[in-house]
Write the structure tokens for this entry.
Amino acid sequence: MAGFSGGPVVAAAAPPSAAAGQPQAVVALPPVPELMQALAHGRSARARWSAAESLRQHGTAAACAAPALIACLSDEDVDVRVSVVRALGYIGEAALPAIPALQGLLSDSDGGVRWAAADALGNFGHPAAPAVPKLVQALDDEEEDVRGSAASALGKFGQLGLDVAAAIPRMSLLVGVREEKEWHVRRAAAEALGRCGVAAAGAVPQLQGALLDEHPRVRAAVQAALEKISGSAEPAASSSEVLTSEAGACEHACARARRRRAIRRCRAFAA
């Protein structure tokens, strides 16, 4: 099925700490069966969400874990649910049965879960097309990370040739500083409009106004979007190309999610 990158991730690089030119340490991930056991039977929430995160890093090599991950969508710990939802978006077509549940999670009471659901749905490509209306609604979410993740997902769909016309007017507004105060959401909206190509021609006036945005990364995204829209004779990208191009796009939101998790744990210990 189109929609996922070509191969699994079986090892994770350690954070860069060595001097330039020196080899980086590589940390091998635990085997998938061991992670499935930890996910299903881990006594601590940390053990379970760590297992889910490692399964996500395995990518499509963890396809056999899809039923176990789906079963954990109702885990009592919100951090486990967030990690499980994200993992489902990276393990391949085996996770397709989770799409209806992920759509429902776009209305979850926790912003982290909503963010993860939008992120995961964006990786499914055509099979997740029925989620477009709810993703459009998520562009108005109170959580900035959810708005950004929804825009990114809709941009992926638009690049694949799916009909996201209903999202264009709202994403056009999100590129403006008067409507959206968070720069990374403005950047995500601009990037998404660019991926939609000529279908986003109606957003050109708003994008042109955003060329004067105070943040350089937003300005760069806006300029790139205008170039893509004006020269969009390119064929729609394949799902794997879209996913590969998104490899580091959620770095900001991931960092915020880690901070959110740390804050939540500290509050729990203090209670």
Notes: The chain has a mean pLDDT of 84. The first strand starts at residue 11 and ends at 13. The chain has 14 helices and two strands. The first helix runs from residue 32 to 41.
